[in-house]
Amino acid sequence: MTGFLALEDGTVFRGESVAADGFAVGEAVFTTAMTGYQEVVTDPSFAQQLVCFTAPMVGNYGVAEGRSESSRPHARAVLMREARGPAWTDWLHERGLVALTGIDTRSLVLKLRESGALRAVVVAGEGSVEQAVSVARAQAPMSGRALAAGVSTPRPYVYSDAGRARIAVVDYGCKRSILRRLAGAGAAVTVFPHDATCEELERFDGVLLSNGPGDPEPLVGQIAVVRELLGRLPILGICLGHQLLALAAGHETFKLPFGHRGANHPVLERGTGRVLVTSQNHGFAVAPSEAREATHVSLYDGTVEGLDFPLEHARSVQFHPEAGPGPHDARPLIDRWVEEVAHAEAA
Amino acid sequence: MPRRRDLTSICLIGSGPIVIGQACEFDYAGCQALKVLRQDGFRTIVVNSNPATIMTDPGFADRTYLEPLDLEGVADVLARERPDALLSTMGGQTALNLARELADAGVLAELGVELIGAPLDVIRRAEDREEFREAVRGVGLKVPSSRIVTGVDELGGISLPAVIRPAFTLGGHGGGFVESVEQLHLQVERGLAESPIRQVLVEESVRGWDEFELEVVRDRKDNVVIVCSIENIDPMGVHTGDSVTVAPQMTLSDHAYQELRDAAVAVIRAVGVECGGSNIQFARERESGELRVIEMNPRVSRSSALASKATGYPIAKIAAKLAVGYTLDEIPNDLTGTTPASFEPTLDYVVVKFPRFAFEKFPGADTTLGTQMKSVGEAMGIGRTFVEAYRKAERSRELDGEERWQLPPTAHPWFHAEIAREPGWLDLDAAVADDFLRYKRAGLADGDIGREEVVRAKRRSCGVRPSYRRVDSCAGEVEAASTYYYSTYGEADEAPPAGTKPRVVILGSGPNRIGQGIEFDYCCVHAAQSFRALGYEAVMVNCNPETVSTDYDTSDRLYFEPLRLEEVLGVCEREQPDGVAIQFGGQTPLKLARGLEAAGFRIIGTPFDAVDIAEDRERFGALLARLGIRCPEWGIARTRGEARAVAERIGFPVLIRPSYVLGGRAMRICYSADDLGEIDRPVLIDRFLESAIEIDVDAVSDGEETYIGAVMQHVEEAGVHSGDSACVLPAPSLTVDEDAEIRAVVRKLARALGVVGLINVQFALADDTLYVLEANPRASRTVPFASKATGVNLVQVACRVLAGARVAELDLSEGLTPRHVSVKAAVLPFARFPGADSVLGPEMRATGEVMASAADLPTAFAKAERAAGRPLPTTGTAFLSVRDADKRAVVRVASALGDLGFKLLATSGTADTLAAAGLEVERVRKVTEQGGGASVVDLIRRGRCNLVVNTPQGSGARTDGYLIREAALVARVPCITTLSGAAAAVHAIANARSEESLSLQERIERETRAA
Q: Mind listing the pLDDT tens digit for each residue in B544-592?
């Protein structure tokens, strides 16, 4: 069965449907990671997005339950140059995802790079291009959209109940890898919904602000909670969590033209002069800053990739130290933080 | 941390002659390194004995030494030039081993030369098995369990199957897989003999495990990036150089891949490579995920060249910058210009590499693939899917028959499934655009679908044409001004070229093979440079990932495509060139010329018809007859009967060969009708001129006037392929008249053929009569040697002529004899092919060559032999055994050896001759002779002979000779198989002087001044 992707500017890419019927509406984005397709699709940060893989072949090594970053796919649709099944395409199908193969992904990427991420519709099967384009245009743009509520846990739960530090994770769309890394570093982990209050959280030894989808700016309530938490207990922000901390501390965020999504992005650690090869997935970013607290900077566009407020014991990174998928260069950041929190608690 | 200010001059060691396991990838690496070091203001000095390399061109370094790559040779250069540092990571294992030797001998310390790139302790940790294992285990990783063995008495209790790996050898040379105790003993013995430190590793076999390689780069701030992952389709057990490989890896999940990545990072840190690139190999058990670290090369390698071409990330260039102090974040990504090199390339395409073998050249050799590399070249294909890349690489090999490669049964099932997806038969009459797209996206060539021309016409009428994609290192994420393209189907085309400059497409020479190697890449690179300098846009088409020509810096645009008509037509249609240059890439482009002309593209330079005349013996014979130029008598035969009639008419011995052959493929000398054998296709039969002197001429013609670049004389007599023969410039034994006659004939021929550009003519001089053996209106194998020996770059001259200049306008002085003598010596791979006979003959088998220059022939010859790894002995015992025809002449050689103090040994026939001539000679038993005492083979094996001269009988009866030559090969004793070669060697032993090494620049300057 054929299918197509229609962009808001009227551009159409044709392909072949390899999963669910129907159509999907969202923001067309691309990721350059060469491995980890299942992780990408199940990462809640991809909510409301149509993900294009630049990797030439997707699905080669099948699927495995343990690889999912959440309980279900969050990407709305998958766009591939060459899908390989049956395990992967069956998996997509069973989960109701629209997926196309045979897409001229490189042309799509060049298009998105030039014009920025675009609203789009993916149609599996025949459909009216005109109608698809108008549906794409009718969507709200990603800027200004608060999406954390849609992907967060509805109620608190305990992920691991024993550890040398008690960590509260605010789930704005948290990846399992973050929880796994925390527990692996020896933390007792409790997960809270996105709208957890300062009172709920401050009972813990430390708070981790998770990754998540959408624009950080409209998350006014969440930013207020972070501001309240600042100085009361150690905070570590990751991705959206980093942006919320930045906004709480007076930095600015903005929408990147087409985002950073991949597993090869160089980030300079200003303190040591070292470069980390990082896993990234964000459409918004913290504006470049020379401020002392800006500890990490993207070597691609100078956006702030890390913040550190030593007095408030708060720090954050834009990239994903938990990887999943991607390189493990930054993994020690989580381990070290847990260590510090445990140490501070003991002292 | 910017560039180090405490260094001002750097010496770089090349990898020497092309041998199996060490090919042009190190020329590519060396060129890149020299380029960036010079840009950074360093004074550069290069030592490399291989004249066919670009890196040894006078313009590439401040000082270029074509000197033997041995301790003495490099130490001389270092003492003369006193560089601050030595960069030893660009010249393969040869350079790394030399660096160790220089350090161990105290030369570096004495001269105050710092080892950069990989310091001594790093080289030791990576290369010494025990230290490496310790380092790897220290970071919690596993290596195959193993034991170091220095003698066969230490083999008790080893569990089989096992792998034998000798320490410090090229491409695993001397190693192998063993299953029985007998094999174990044999292989360990061989390995010990090969290892310069007499040490081998006997280790747990991981044969059948999946094999991965990671290319890692690290800087002195401890930033590490993985440039590329490579998956071997042949699992462990086949040397990676012989394996079909794919990048990026195809079958690992993110989790499994990151485990490899972590391990690679841990290993490079543990070994301590601080500023450079490394290649790390892993074995991974498919089901359990068990991992073993196999080995690490703390230098650029064949795999790093492949990774550079596969990703657009120039590892050698980056490694050179790291070695002089930069860090990764300070070095820009070449292709984007705006982002740093401290990232990991991401691919939106697939790359497959195929090895190319030359077993047909070595009858008798074992063709089983194992841990010892046997391939002589490689081809790479790029596509948007695995199969597309795979099929492109597969057909890029240019095999005679277009047989497909069979996936090994043990290959990962994913690869089997991919190959099995190939669409079946296509009904051309009913085919529509989508059908063609499907077939093309499965990587099939027009010729795979049906009759090539028919399929192409039909496909094009459906509007299905290739589109071209950029290799940009970042999957399109960052804007890149890359000029590096590959073709695919069913996608948009990327920014077709615009421009007002005239444009020339240069066709490369494809995978290295015996008979067509780096010399032609040298010519293509110079053609690109020359055309660019002349105001042209140079567009390169080639598919050999080792080469300088496939460096995207070399040309204005690079198309990494198979050198086949379909793909080349595709490029030409896109580029619409003003001309297609076919005369630089050896035989490969010539095969495409007719099709290109038929499609309306203009061949720049010599028209194809001239090529055809030169190749078609009947037309060529008619031309020679018309011009009154003599050639050996010849005829064409289609059957055995005809062959016999022709041979009897022209007289034995005769030389038989099929037409359109490369590197003397399937050429034979027949001494009698019995030798003619079965004849199943048309063959050429030439009268074979015995004991003739062979002359090679390289020249450039503008169609009217001809510039003779070089007249060279072969050391070995006619009958030994010119590629295997040593060669001297200026020709030592030509009289003034002979020289003049040769030049006149070349002029006459070039003009008659209408040659515009390069021409090579081969002559035989027998009994004062000159015969033309063949003419090739294209660049020849000797062009780089001739250019370096004379200081006149013949490719440059040719390009100016191709661009319209007249020879007369070029201000070239001809007829000046160089003041120094240059010798080119061939390097032969017999040690790689046990079972194949090492006797020289009309079939070319050399993989590479070296060059040496000196004030006189003996000195140059001795140095060339040293550079070729066969240093001539100056004293000791010489063994002689020659065929009857050589018996008279051997006396002179033997008596000269005797005068030099050599003790003479000979088998009965030769001993009789020598004794009759009054020489003191000791008789020794042939293997096949009954009797007591040691046979000659025993003596050679025991190291009792320092020189072996053994000329084989014309045919048959080779048993004894073969055993002698094989023993000499194993014992690494120089073994000379022609009497002319022996005479030259003896002359050199007697007269070679020690002479100061001169750089190429100094020599050229002296020549120019003398002129």
A: 999 999 999 999 999 999 999 999 999 999 999 999 999 999 999 999 9
B667: confidence class by pLDDT, cuts 50, 70, 90 = confident
Q: Please answer yes or no on whether B346 and A277 come within 8 Å at the CB atom.
A: no
State residue B957's pLDDT score: 42
Please tell me the distance in Å from A55's CA to the nearest CA on chain B: 5
Convert the pLDDT of each residue in B118-149 to its tens digit.
999 999 999 888 899 999 999 999 998 888 89
Quick check: A197 contacting B, CB < 8 Å?
A: no
Average pLDDT over residues A26-38: 98
CA distance A4 to chain B (A): 15
Instruction: Read off the amino acid at residue A112.
Output: L
**Residue B987 and residue B31: Cα distance in Å, rounded?**
36
The per-residue pLDDT for range B64-89, each reduced to its tens digit, is 999 999 999 999 999 999 999 999 99
For residue A330 the two structure tokens come to 């930054």
What separation, in Å, do the N-terminal and C-terminal C-alpha atoms of chain A show? 64
**Closest among A197, A191, A185 to A173, alpha carbons compared:** A191
Q: Which CATH fold would you assign to the domain A2-138?
A: Glucose Oxidase; domain 1 (3.50.30)
3-state secondary structure B791-840: CCCHHHHHHHHHCCCCHHHHCCCCCCCCCCEEEEEEECCHHHCCCCCCCC
For residue B364, the tally of other CB atoms under 10 A from its CB is 11
Q: Distance between CA B874 and CA B901 in Å, rounded?
A: 9
The tokens for B131 are: 């230290």
Owner of token pair 């004293």: B875
Mutate to test the interface with B, among A37, A81, A101 (most CBs of B within 10 A): A81
Cβ contact A150:A24 at 8 Å: no
B-interface mutation test, from A38, A111, A274, most B Cβ less than 10 A away: A274
Largest alpha-carbon pair distance within chain A?
66
pLDDT tens-place string over residues B947-968 = 999 988 654 445 688 888 888 8
ipTM summary value: 0.97
Sheet containing strand B114-116, edge to edge, reads: B63-65, B43-47, B9-13, B85-87, B114-116
pTM for this model (two decimals):
0.95
Q: Single out the residue of B846, B292, B801, B290 nearest to residue B583, CA to CA.
A: B801
Q: What is the pLDDT of residue B815?
A: 61
Domains of chain B (ranges; CATH) run 9-125 (3.40.50.20), 145-204 (3.30.1490.20), 356-458 (no CATH), 496-599 (3.40.50.20), 613-827 (3.30.470.20), 873-991 (3.40.50.1380)
Catalytic residue set of A: 239, 320, 322
Please identify among residues 312-331 of chain A the ones whose CB lies closer than 8 Å to any CB of chain B. 323-328
Which residues of A are less than 8 Å from B254 in CB distance? 33, 35-36, 39, 67, 324-326
Q: Which amino acid is at A171?
A: D
Query: Domain segments of chain A: what residues?
Result: 2-138, 148-346
B986, B896 Cβ separation under 8 angstroms: yes
Q: At what angle do helices B736-753 and B608-615 cross, to 10 degrees?
A: 130
For B95, other C-beta atoms within 10 Å of its C-beta total 31
Architecture of the domain defined by A148-346: 3-Layer(aba) Sandwich (3.40)
Q: Do residues A19 and A97 touch, judged by C-beta distance below 8 A?
A: yes
Quote the pLDDT of residue B927. Answer: 81
Same fold, A2-138 and A148-346: no
